[in-house]
């Protein structure tokens, strides 16, 4: 069970993958997986927040964290590839850039915010100027302040 300090986790996304996730969600997908190169991502959390990098620089959505599954890239693709925004195994290989390990962060109940959370709000609530590339845990209190 996540602690209060690790209640939420902010994932970084490129605009391209964010747009695909939104399209996938509109088509009725229930469970999704966010793919990361190497063995990185939250081990525990209740909520995932999606921070879309430049040019947006905003948190644009939220979802319920299911699990982080990490390991061999081929096994993960065979089991969870259909849950991703990646269109084919070949595209997946290009995304991985030759890495043999990957992480799939599985989630459900994804929703886009009508009003995204600005980088200024993140600075105010979290006291940081930049979201780390690996993502960032946030407390239950901080999450409530952000999505009030």
Can you summarize this structure?
With 148 residues, the protein is of the alpha+beta class. It has five helices and six strands; from the N terminus they run βαβββααβαβα. The mean pLDDT is 95.
Keywords:
6 strands, 5 helices, globular, single chain, 148 residues, alpha+beta, Archaeosine Trna-guanine Transglycosylase, Chain: A, domain 4, six-stranded mixed beta sheet, 37% strand
Strand content is 35-45%
**SSE pattern, N- to C-terminal:** EHEEEHHEHEH
Q: Rg from C-alpha positions?
A: 15 Å
- Work out the count of structural domains: 1
Give the end-to-end Cα distance, rounded to a whole number of Å. Answer: 23 Å
Could you name the CATH class? Mainly Beta
CATH architecture verdict:
Roll
The pLDDT mean sits at 95
Number of strands: 6
Strand order of the largest sheet: 2-5-4-3-1-6
Tell me the quaternary state: single chain
Q: Could you characterize what this model shows?
A:
Helix content is 29%, strand content 37%. The protein has helices spanning 15-26, 73-80, 89-96, 119-126, 140-146, and strands spanning 8-13, 31-37, 47-52, 58-72, 101-118, 136-138. The chain is built from five helices and six strands, in the order βαβββααβαβα. The chain is an alpha+beta fold. It has a six-stranded mixed sheet with strand order 2-5-4-3-1-6. The chain is globular and about 40 Å long. It has a single domain (4-142), classed as Archaeosine Trna-guanine Transglycosylase, Chain: A, domain 4 (Roll).
Describe the secondary-structure layout.
Layout: E1 8-13, H1 15-26, E2 31-37, E3 47-52, E4 58-72, H2 73-80, H3 89-96, E5 101-118, H4 119-126, E6 136-138, H5 140-146
Parallel strand pairs: 1-3
Antiparallel strand pairs: 1-6, 2-5, 3-4, 4-5
């Amino acid at each position: 069970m996540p602690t209060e300090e690790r209640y939420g986790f902010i994932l970084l996304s490129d605009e391209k993958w964010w747009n695909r996730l939104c399209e996938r969600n509109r088509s009725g997908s229930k469970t999704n997986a966010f793919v990361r190169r190497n063995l990185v991502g939250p081990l525990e959390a209740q909520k995932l927040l999606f921070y879309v990098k430049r040019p947006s620089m905003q948190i644009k959505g939220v979802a319920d964290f299911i699990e982080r599954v990490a390991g061999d890239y081929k096994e993960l693709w065979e089991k969870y590839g259909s849950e991703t925004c990646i269109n084919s195994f070949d595209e997946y290989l290009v995304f991985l850039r030759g890495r043999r390990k990957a992480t799939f962060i599985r989630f459900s109940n994804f929703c886009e915010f009508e009003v995204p959370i600005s980088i200024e709000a993140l600075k105010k609530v979290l006291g940081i100027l930049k979201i780390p590339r690996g993502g960032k845990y946030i407390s239950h209190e901080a999450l409530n302040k952000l999505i009030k």
